[in-house]
Design brief:
nucleotide-binding; mainly alpha; transmembrane helix; 3-stranded antiparallel β-sheet; transmembrane
Length: about 325
């Protein structure tokens, strides 16, 4: 699927959620949807930075408060801190009245998100190069080396003014002539270029990206750990002025979350939804599409070529497969 096709699919999915399914639900209205996103976000975003907890261990840590496994304490605290910050980020979804003066993001919130994400791990394993005033929520007080791609963050003396300029660009997202994902990619990359903290900039940058997405009415983007190299390469391309690959990756991540988590939870068993929203570990999207094409699964094909079915029809198809296997 081309980049523009991904954007169109995302726009269509957002339109369907808004116009036919009542809009993206707040965490208070649909805790199960957001809890699923929350666990996957905490697992993948920390894994991108090198955390070794597997998904099952993250689930038990967050849902049961149990540190299962033999990892270093700092790894559990990394996940817990990120999850605490992500929980607050998600609480901002589709509640624009909380914005007060209409700002998408403030410098106080930038520092608050970093403090929430980093305090638990900092308490047990502070950054070895941090000065006394460079802890969670505080901007770095010394310069750092260039990134592997050659981009050098600004001097520490310029961090706060550059960050305030960055916040102005965040506010300009609503008025951007580009697709929203292109604008989001540009500001995500720009935050990483400023690198305002001594540690935790990647995690904080993804949390702030999701905060902005949520406040704009989108589902959050979860960059999967298996896509780490592609994500880092896209950031390097953005450093050189090409934001397209990063924008496409963010768009695909948002679309995936809408189709996997949001649409299935909002749509009743009779409502027609994209096949991707009906896939399960037992029956894949590809298997459903093949069944629809062969007439074995009741489905309808839209003008854009997208197949749509319902949970009831998929259950009926699966039941018929079991009956056929039993007779065989």
């Amino acid at each position: 699927m081309s980049r523009q096709a991904v954007y169109r699919s995302l726009d269509e999915a957002i339109s369907e959620v808004r116009d036919q399914l009542g809009g993206l639900p707040s965490p208070a209205e649909a805790r199960a949807i957001w809890d699923e996103l929350w666990v996957h976000d905490a697992h993948n975003s920390t894994a991108i930075e090198g955390n070794t907890l597997v998904l099952r261990e993250v689930q038990q840590l967050l849902h049961e408060g149990r540190a299962v496994g033999d990892r270093q304490l700092a790894e559990y605290m990394e996940v817990k801190g990120y999850a605490d910050a992500a929980r607050w980020v998600y609480s901002q979804a589709v509640v624009p009245d909380l914005l007060g003066d209409g700002e998408l993001l403030t410098i106080t919130e930038v520092r608050y998100v970093h403090r929430m994400a980093m305090t638990p791990v900092w308490d047990v394993a502070p950054h070895p190069d941090a000065g006394p005033h460079e802890g969670p929520g505080n901007f770095r007080r010394h310069d750092i080396h260039s990134f592997p791609g050659g981009m050098k963050p600004p001097s520490h003396a310029l961090v706060e003014p550059r960050l305030r300029d960055w916040l102005d660009s965040v506010e300009a997202v609503r008025a951007s002539a580009a697709h929203p994902m292109e604008a989001i990619a540009a500001i995500h990359a720009a935050f990483e270029q400023v690198h305002p903290f001594i540690d935790g900039n990647g995690r904080t940058g993804r949390l702030l990206m999701n905060l902005i997405l949520c406040r704009l009415g989108y589902a959050p983007a979860i960059i999967q750990k298996r896509e780490r190299e592609r994500y880092l390469r896209a950031l390097r391309q953005a450093d050189a002025g090409n934001h397209g690959p990063l924008a496409e990756q963010i768009a695909r991540a948002v679309l995936d979350n809408i189709l996997r988590f949001v649409v299935p939870a909002l749509a009743g068993p009779e409502r027609l939804v994209p096949l991707a929203s009906l896939a399960t570990p037992e029956v894949s999207h590809l298997a459903l599409r093949n069944a629809a094409q062969r007439g074995r699964l009741k489905a309808q094909r839209a003008e854009n070529g997208q197949w749509r079915s319902s949970r009831a029809w998929v259950d009926e198809y699966i039941a018929s497969k079991y009956r056929s296997a039993a007779r065989g």
